[in-house]
Structures are given as C-alpha cells and as structure tokens.
Amino acid sequence: MTPMFHLVGSERQLRRIRTTQISRNPYQPRKYFEPEAIRQLADSIRQYGVLNPLTVRRTTDGYELIAGERRLRAARAAGLSEVPCLIMSATEEDSSAIALVENLQRRDLDFFEEAAGYRQLIDRYGLTQEEAAHRVGKTQSAVANKLRLLKLSPETMQMIRDGGLTERHARAILRLPTEEQRCNTIEKIIAQQWNVSRTEQYIEHLLTAPPEQPTGTVRRLIKDVRLFLNTVDKAVGLMKESGVETSYEKEQRDDGILVKILIPNARR
C-alpha cells in the first residue's frame, strides 16, 4: 500500500540551511538515538559531508524537521553549520506521518515506538485506524496489532527492550492479566532464554492451570473446623449438665466429619 499525504501545493526546494535554524519534529516517533551510531555517522559526515538531504518545512520561527533527525544530530556533532535540506510544503499532519514513514522504511523504530507513532497520529488528528494505516502504507490489521502492544505498562515495555525480546514475545506476554505475572514471566524468559514457542507454551500453562491453594488458607480452614467442633462439644456438654439427655456422635469419614446430635422433644 502506498502512503497517502495531502501536501500543500507542489513546492519543493533544495537549499542549504543553518543547523541553528532547524528545530526538531515534535512528533518524531523515534525516542532513542544510539550515541555510538551518531558518533560514527558524524565521522562519516566530516569526511564526505551529508549525502542525503534532510526534509524540512517552513515555520514562523524558521524550519521544522520532517525527516532526518539522526543526520541533523550527527551534522551538529561534526561541527557543520549548514546542511542540505529539501524544503517541503507540508501540513503538520503530513509532517507527523512522513516522519513515521521514513523511520518505518529505514527500520529505525522498535515495535513499541512504531505503535506509539500510530497512536500519536490517530489521537492528534482524529483518524480512524484505517485512515492512519492508509497514511503510512500499512493494512488496518497491521496497525491494530501494533496498537495492542500499548496495553503493556512502560515498565514492562522497558523490561522487554532490555531483554532483547521480540514483538511475538510481547504479544504472548500481553495475554497475562496482571502486571506481576507479566514481570515474573519476562524474568523467566530472559533467564531461561526461551524462544517464542516455549514462551507461548508456558503462558498457556499459566492461563489454564487451576489456581494453587495457598498453604495459609488450608491451615486456617483446619483451625476453623476444630474451633467449630469445640464449640459444639461445649454446647452439648452444657445441655447435658442442664438435664437434657442429648445424643451426640462424631464419625470420621473419607469425605469429612459426620456430626449427629439428637435433642429429645420437651415433655409436657
């Protein structure tokens, strides 16, 4: 599917612009830039220059970056005062969509950043999932599947990132209902180096296995039964002391304790 942008007019100019005049795209979906990768790109730029122009749009204060933040950071690190830029007449919505598409095409985003980019596009411009998918050249189901990942907490996402787990791992973890289960499972996956298949088997077992009876609950139940029987013993004893010939039997059976109490009818 081809991305769809509604660009304003057809103006596209190529010129050199001072780096101090270029502000970053506030809707840049990529949140983390590897310092070592920026350093290596800066070394390359010092030697060969910026070979691929940045894409910007005019604003009241100068220019706003549409695509090429990594190149801009590296150019500044290399000491360049100017960079080649393609000036595009784009709306704010198009700028956000183009930034997302560029990162997707370069495979610069992890799956959580990609999902956050779709969510930002939908929420800021009131798009449906289908409309957002059309903007970035994806199917509606692909966008919907990514958006589900955002149900995970930021802490869980970071654990998945730090552990180097895949999107399929994340989807499997999403099936677990509580944060505690998710965090414990991620720790197991990382420690045991489980692949996706093994992870899915383990999670299926967690979801279908009967809940374990806590030891403390069993002990409390036993204690409560004994307390009940002691209370009955005392009550029957008081009745006998009062002259009521009460019959009282306890029988231990496989399925429990059978208690029989016979209290005679009152005599006229």
Structural description of this entry:
The protein is α/β, with parallel strands linked by helices and 268 residues long. Helix content is 52%, strand content 16%. The protein has eleven helices and seven strands. A five-stranded mixed β-sheet has the order 1-5-3-4-2, with helices on both faces. It has a two-stranded antiparallel ribbon with strand order 6-7. Helix 8 packs parallel to helix 10. The radius of gyration is 34 Å and the shape is rod-shaped. The N and C termini lie far apart (96 Å). About 2% of the residues have low confidence.
Give the helix/strand layout.
Layout: E1 12-18, E2 22-23, H1 35-48, E3 54-59, E4 62-67, H2 69-77, E5 82-88, H3 92-106, H4 111-125, H5 129-136, H6 140-148, H7 154-162, H8 167-173, H9 179-192, H10 196-208, H11 215-241, E6 247-253, E7 256-262
Parallel strand pairs: 2-4, 3-5
Antiparallel strand pairs: 1-5, 3-4, 6-7
Shape: rod-shaped
- Which percent range fits the helix content? 40-55%
The major sheet is characterized as:
5 strands, mixed
| Element string (H = helix, E = strand) | EEHEEHEHHHHHHHHHEE
Q: Enumerate the strands of the largest sheet in spatial order, edge to edge or round the barrel.
A: 1-5-3-4-2
Sheet/helix structural class: alpha/beta
Notable features of this structure?
two-stranded antiparallel ribbon, alpha/beta, 11 helices, rod-shaped
In short:
With 268 residues, this protein is an alpha/beta fold. The protein contains eleven helices and seven strands.
